[in-house]
From TrEMBL:
This is Peptidase M15. It comes from Phenylobacterium kunshanense. Residues 8-119 form the Peptidase M15A C-terminal domain.
Length: 145
């Protein structure tokens, strides 16, 4: 059974993991955050022309976050972050550029190379970063890779 959070995003999609050996069931307070995150992702979807968004990572339990090498303070832990692709729109850089120049509220937007990370943590700093090839992140969207 699918638990719809919004018209285009389901709880299962935002909690899916390839690490099936780990329990990635979110507690009730995280489910509430995921509902808000899904509503914000609907805004992103509309901004990208209603194109399909493929979520690769949403909520991560602490155990899952450790296994995938996530930051200790990751917004994924609270259900405030989504890693995704929108293949019909263009490259992750094009997606980031569209979001960064829009009025969509976000905390962090990161062009990760082959996917986009967006978080909607309560701060809403509108911080835009680009992952560097050698490691680390640069502030803003880098033009050359």
């Amino acid at each position: 059974m699918t638990t719809k959070l919004t018209a285009h995003f389901a709880l299962e999609e935002l909690t899916h993991t390839q690490h099936r050996e780990l329990d990635n069931t979110p507690p009730p307070e995280v489910v509430a955050n995921l509902q808000t995150t899904a509503a914000r992702m609907e805004e992103v979807r509309r901004l990208l022309g209603g194109r399909v968004i493929t979520v690769t990572s949403g909520y991560r339990s602490p155990a899952l976050n450790r296994v995938v090498g996530g930051a200790r303070t990751s917004a994924h832990l609270d259900g405030h972050a989504v890693d995704f692709n929108c293949y019909g729109f263009g490259s992750p850089k094009a997606v980031c550029r569209k979001i960064a120049t829009s009025d969509v509220d976000f905390d962090q937007l990161i062009e990760e190379g082959s996917w986009v990370h967006i978080s909607f943590a309560p701060k809403l700093r509108r911080q835009v970063l680009t992952k560097r090839q050698g490691g680390g992140y640069a502030l803003g969207l880098e033009v050359a890779r």
